[in-house]
Design brief:
single chain; alpha/beta; seven-stranded mixed sheet; four-stranded antiparallel sheet; 20 helices
Length: 536
């Protein structure tokens, strides 16, 4: 699929027979997404197309639609554009050799480092031991291999941080604190854990939430992006929740003494704005005398817009109307509210003192009438940090498509022919590409007549995801020639196979050079830990 002059890959968005698979996001399962668009509706992942224009000099994976979704990446893009602090972190479970699918994450981390971010790469060795039952000797060997490839591809260890979960005491201590805000029923709902799940596996999940927040612990709270495949989204969702639960204060918009949830608040805002502007039929500005009961009557006749957002508002409308009616003659007046969530007495008193202008102080919250919500959030974080709190921002995330296996279907580390390891002999890499399944027609004649199906072709994906690198012209040429019937599969695979052979040879040469760099880093790759690990 072409977007201007840039080929946009749709690889993996559906099955060849047109059917779709159920959406299943399992961090330890067999990665599978039937239709990436389903993730937008079911899990609240946003389309990356909505934010890509705000990214300075976007990476080619962004331009080509390989990175398809995000959560709050606009905060990172804004920091990047304004030369403000931001961070990126991702982890690697050392259960086998790094392959071309892992290279996507390596490249995303390195690009964010090149854009000025504080970048962290971690070895999820506790997860590998608990969830996969890997021995520590195996973990050590694979950890070394992942780090060598990351360094060979351009990660600067002097301007970033590499670590093992098992060696990072700050991460483990933070995980302990975050674990106090999580419970087993939540793990059941998010991960499907049950009575057979070993406790260390659950502990490794909490450790990963600490990993995700670690960049904000190192220096200061800042926008932080986690580049991952969509199967890792459960970790991101949980961490975003925990980041807010450990905060001292929750900052919301409010209108009166009563509390509202997010959808109810949106409805009340709509009613207030209409009445304050005089659209109730009064013909004037009633902003100084909008009463709860009046807003209830207006809202009772209001019909939310069509669509999913409107459906949520319709569901919330009865409770919003009931709450407003219970408020009676109480005036509605917009304000920001600081809710005491985990604050110490000293921190709560400091917040009261720090709020300038008109305010009202209650037992569990403070209402401020002269602050914007952004100003209030900044003030809450400042007070929290001054009183030994974390002040975490919710982490952002970006999601890339899974690469299709060279043999069709899923790319699997357990099927050698389906993937190319970054450690494969260059000749073997060449052979795997020449043997790969394609999106070509049954005969050369049909290919010339009908064109190939580049969007269904694992070989075209190799160009789009890896081989074309930053050369959009090459990716566009391969795509266009394929779908127009000018390019036949034999020559296309030969070109890709040669490029893959050259890439592997170059990468392995750089891995050898990275040996000395890795040796100088303070990372223990000869663990003396004991234990047999768990299993998934």
């Amino acid at each position: 699929r072409m977007d201007g002059d840039i080929p946009r890959t749709d690889g993996g968005t559906g099955r060849a027979d047109g059917s779709t698979e159920d959406v299943a996001l399992d961090p330890w399962g067999s990665a599978s997404v039937g239709d990436y668009a389903d993730l937008f509706a079911e899990f609240g992942i946003e389309s990356f197309d909505d934010v890509v224009d705000d990214v300075p000099a976007p990476h080619y994976l962004m331009r080509r639609g390989v990175i398809f979704g995000h959560r709050e990446y606009d905060a990172v893009a804004e920091a990047m554009a304004n030369d403000e602090p931001f961070a990126a972190l991702s982890g690697f479970m050392p259960t086998g050799d790094p392959h071309i699918g892992h290279k996507l994450v390596f490249d995303e981390l390195i690009w964010h480092q090149q854009q000025g971010g504080d970048v962290f790469g971690l070895i999820a060795d506790l997860e590998a031991h608990a969830a996969r039952g890997m021995s520590w000797d195996e973990i050590d060997e694979h950890a070394r291999s992942y780090l060598l490839s990351l360094l060979a591809l351009g990660f600067d260890p002097e301007d970033g941080e590499l670590y093992r979960q098992s060696e990072n005491r700050a991460v483990q201590d933070l995980g302990f604190e975050l674990g106090a805000k999580a419970n087993f029923s939540e793990f059941e709902a998010i991960y499907g854990f049950d009575g057979e799940t070993n406790v260390s596996h659950m502990q490794s999940v909490v450790t990963q939430t600490a990993d995700i927040l670690y960049p904000q612990l190192v220096d200061e709270p800042k926008p932080t992006v986690i580049p991952v495949g969509p199967d890792q989204d459960p970790h991101v969702r949980l961490t975003r929740d925990l980041a807010t639960r450990v905060r001292y204060f929750k900052v919301t918009e409010a209108f009166a003494s009563f509390e509202l949830d997010d959808d109810e608040r949106q409805l009340v805002r709509t009613a207030y704005d209409a009445l304050a502007a005089g659209s109730d039929g009064s013909g004037g500005d009633g902003s100084d005398d909008v009463r709860s009961a009046d807003a209830a009557e207006w809202l009772a006749d209001y019909e939310p817009p069509a669509g999913e957002a409107g459906d949520a508002l319709r569901a919330a409308k009865p409770s919003a109307v009931e709450t407003l009616r219970a408020g009676g003659k109480e005036p509605l007046r917009p304000r920001v509210r600081f809710l005491d969530r985990n604050a110490t007495d000293e921190a709560f008193e400091a917040l009261i003192e720090a709020v300038d202008g008109e305010k009202r102080v209650f037992e569990g919250h403070v209402d401020a009438f002269e602050l914007s919500r952004a100003e209030a959030a900044s003030l809450a974080r400042e007070v929290e940090l001054a009183h030994d709190g974390f002040g975490f921002r919710q982490p952002s995330s970006i999601y890339h498509r899974f690469m299709t296996g060279l043999t069709g279907g899923k790319m699997s580390s357990s099927i050698p022919a389906s993937h190319i390891s970054l450690l494969d002999d260059p000749e073997d890499g060449y052979d795997k590409v020449t043997s790969a399944t394609t999106g070509g027609r049954e005969t050369a004649a049909k290919q010339r007549e009908l064109g190939g199906e580049a969007d269904e072709c694992p070989v075209y994906e190799l160009y789009a995801y890896l081989l074309a690198n930053d050369d959009d012209g090459l990716a566009a040429e391969v795509y266009t020639e394929c779908v127009n019937g000018e390019r036949l599969c034999g020559g296309c695979k030969e070109q890709a196979a040669t490029m893959m052979q050259e890439f592997l040879a170059d990468h392995q040469e750089k891995r050898a050079e990275a040996e000395a760099v890795l040796e100088d880093l303070d990372i223990d790759l000869d663990s003396d830990r004991r234990g047999t690990g768990g299993e998934h």
